[in-house]
Amino acid sequence: MNVAFILIAGLTLGSAIAAMSLRNLVHCALCTVITFAGLAAMYLQLNAQFVGFAQILVYVGAVAILILFAVLLTRNSENQPNTLLASPSWIIGILVAISVSGTIIYAVVKSTRLAQTLPPAPEATVQKIGEQLMTNYVLPLEIVALLLTAAMIGAVIIAMRDKNEKEDSGSKMITGNARERVSQPSTIHHPSSSQKTTR
Amino acid sequence: MQSLDQIFVTGKQWLLAFLPEALQPVGSILLVIAAIFGVFATLFAVTTILERKILGRIQNRFGPNRVGPFGFFQPAADGIKMLTKEDIVPRDADKIIHFLAPLALIIPVALALSVLPYGRNMVPVEFDAGLLFFFAVGASTELSVFMAGWSSRNKYSLVGAMRGIAQMISYEVPLVLSTVTVIMIVGSLSLVKIVEAQSGFLFGFLPSWHVFTPWGFAGFFLFMIAATAESNRSPFDLPEAESEIIAGYLTEYSGFKYALFFMGEYWGMFAISGLSVTLFLGGWNAPFPFLQFIPSYIWFFTKLVLIIFTFIWLRGTVPRLRLDQLMSFAWKFLLPLALTNIVVAAIWFFSRALQFPGALGLRWIFCAAILAVSYVWLGRGVAQAQRAKRVYQYAE
Amino acid sequence: MLGTGIIKGMVETARNFVGSYHDPERLTTVQYPEERLAPKENGRSFPFLVFDGNDQQAGLRCVACQICEKECPPQCIYINKSKDKKPDYVGKLQFYPATFDIDISVCMSCQICVEVCPFEAIKMDQVFELSTSDRFGKLLLHKPQLAKPNEYFHQLHPTDANEVDARLGEEKRKAEAKAAAAAAAAAAKLAAPKPAPDEPTKAT
Amino acid sequence: MAIETTFQPKATLGRTAPGNYTLLPKTPAGAIGGIDGTVLEVAMGPHHPSTHGVFRMDVSLDGETVVKLKPVFGYLHRNHEKIAENTTYLGSVPYTDRLDYLCSMTNNWAYALSVERLAGLQVPERAEYIRVITAELTRLVNHCSLIGFLMQDMGAMGTPLMYAFREREKILDLFESLSGSRMMCNYMRFGGCRCELPSGWIEQAKKVVTSFPEFLDHFEALLSENEILLARTQGVGVLSKELAINASITGPMLRASGVNYDIRKVDKYGIYDRFSFRVPLGEHGDVFDRYMMRVLEMRESLKLLEQALAQIPSGPIIDPKAKLRGFRQKPGEAYARIEGPKGELGFYLISDGSPNPYRYRVRPPSLINLTILEDMCLGQTIADAVIILGSVDIVLGEVDR
Question: Is D245–A185 a contact, with Cβ atoms under 8 angstroms apart?
Answer without folding.
Answer: yes
